[in-house]
Specification:
The protein is built from three helices and six strands. By secondary structure, it is α/β, with parallel strands linked by helices. The protein has one domain: Transcription Regulator spoIIAA (2-Layer Sandwich), CATH 3.30.750. The chain has a six-stranded mixed beta sheet with strand order 1-2-3-4-5-6, with helices on one face. Helix 1 packs parallel to helix 2.
Length: 109
C-alpha cells in the first residue's frame, strides 16, 4: 500500500487493517494518514498492527490520533503498540479517545 526508505505499510485481511514496519517520522507521516483514510473507508473497526515499528515520532502518533478523531464510526484498534508509545498515549489522554483502542488481544497479521 505504501513504501519508502523507512516505512512499509501493507494491508491485512484477518483482521482487516494495516501492518506497519519500519519507522514513522515527519517525512512519511502524511503517507500514514493517507493510508489510514483509505483503509477506514467503510466505517468498520480497522486493526493496525504496529508491532513492526522500530520508531515512531510525535507526527506518527498524531497521524493515528487524528485518524481516530475524524472517524464517524468504528474504531482504530492498535495491536503491538510498544510500551513507550503506550505510555505516551496514556499520559496524553489519547488512549481514552472513543474511536481509538489499544488492544492487547494478541491479534496480529
Amino acid at each position: 500500500m505504501y513504501s519508502d526508505n523507512h516505512l512499509i505499510v501493507t494491508r491485512t485481511e484477518d483482521p482487516v487493517g494495516l501492518f506497519f514496519a519500519g519507522e514513522i517520522d515527519f517525512s512519511n507521516s502524511h503517507a500514514v494518514a493517507e493510508s489510514l483514510s483509505i483503509a477506514s473507508g467503510d466505517g468498520t473497526d480497522v486493526h493496525l498492527d504496529v508491532s513492526g515499528l522500530s520508531f515512531c515520532d510525535i507526527s506518527g502518533i498524531r497521524s493515528l490520533v487524528d485518524a481516530a478523531q475524524t472517524r464517524q464510526s468504528g474504531r482504530l484498534m492498535l495491536h503491538g503498540l510498544p510500551d513507550l508509545l503506550q505510555k505516551v498515549m496514556h499520559v496524553t489522554g489519547w488512549s481514552e479517545l472513543p474511536n481509538l483502542q489499544i488492544c492487547n488481544c494478541g491479534a496480529r497479521r
